[in-house]
């Protein structure tokens, strides 16, 4: 469906509607992420290795599922309908996690529902943003950067709130029900998000895919729901058995890579350069998300065991955080840095001096390297095996700048280089690449797995700092690779623009 380029006020209202539902969806997802590894380690008794790999496999499935959801949005139910259905399914998934049981299979099935909901929701919201700004590259970059900032509002609130809710309920009423009350709060956020979409539905009436313009096909809806039930069961089994998880993730990578190459070979000559550029940048994104997955695995457990939870300034005590709340630093920095980068992109775009996406990727990897080195050198200044909380603030700041330059522009890259007729699938393919790296990130995090009988911070500290220094070196290697492919990317981008 061809989208007319509309006046800015209409674009802004449409963008706000999508950004708000995405904000509340991220409220649910990151509120759950802040606690899930701690829940498995502290409540279910998983060792570090199992908790890291279960969550990383779940994150992989959550990011792989949009490959199917994007196709459903493009060809079956419609982009807008798939987005709303996905939000409804996610609401159910987080509500199931609120059920006060520590049964492992129940948790895995609830995560399976989240997998299905995210698969329907994620690619279709991004695709709607692309359709709103279709045809204006500089506005697409700026819009996706602001979109990235908007969704981090939700994740900031939830990553600060859910650990506090868990601690407050457990301390006030005793027992461990606080974990489940906190998971339930994630579901409430999505209810608010759906209500927003209902109130503002007129602002997105003009965007969507062809099925959105037709009456809802109940048979197709039933088929999608039935497939979702099957996927919930499959996801639960994959989460239980590590070997299956590994096989599934690697096969998904090979299949999507094969399809990507097939589409490049079969595409029209004027589309080939753009698709090749998108493939190169997607492969770079795979490496970035290996670093990104450390936030909810190795960095999360590092905060639990080796970070002083007090924030002090000039000898004065300011406040304390729980270990899980440190993850909110990522979203806080995203909100601080996003407007600055969006302004820089627009200013540079107007003067014709905007840095290419490939150049921004290289700069992003360098920032990530500096962030991990900040964590790595923290051991030299630790007291009794505990590093300063301000080290986490600095490290997350650099890491978040890198995230904005790579992940924040990943979707803009798809929107810029991929033909509109395959945008839904390519949004999904990008998320599959992200999912593969989430699992690989868990494998990397296990290099810092701490044996269950080791509790002394002086013993755990060198385990983590060694990993962080290695990750810093790895990010520098990625920076060098990104710089090396810049000439190729300039050639592909020039060819793509010459034919479009």
UniProtKB/TrEMBL annotation:
Domain (Major facilitator superfamily (MFS) profile): residue spans on this chain? 1-490
User: What keywords tag this UniProt record?
Assistant: Cell membrane, Membrane, Peptide transport, Protein transport, Transmembrane, Transmembrane helix, Transport
Keyword flag Repeat? no
Recorded hits in Gene3D superfamilies, A to Z, give: MFS general substrate transporter like domains
GO CC annotations on file: plasma membrane
Its placement in the membrane is given as: Multi-pass membrane protein
MF-aspect GO terms: dipeptide transmembrane transporter activity; peptide:proton symporter activity; tripeptide transmembrane transporter activity
What are its GO biological-process terms? tripeptide transmembrane transport
- Give the organism the record lists: Massilia cellulosiltytica
- What is the name of this protein? MFS transporter
Q: Which residues cross the membrane?
A: 27-46, 52-71, 83-99, 105-121, 142-165, 177-200, 221-241, 247-264, 273-292, 324-345, 357-384, 396-418, 430-451, 471-489
Q: Tell me where it mainly resides.
A: membrane
Q: Which InterPro entries match?
A: Dipep/tripep_permease, MFS_dom, MFS_trans_sf, MFS_Transporters, POT_fam
Enumerate the subcellular locations listed in this protein's record, separating them with semicolons: Cell membrane
The cross-references to PANTHER family, in alphabetical order and at most eight, read:
PROTON-DEPENDENT OLIGOPEPTIDE FAMILY TRANSPORT PROTEIN, RESISTANCE PROTEIN MDTM, PUTATIVE-RELATED-RELATED
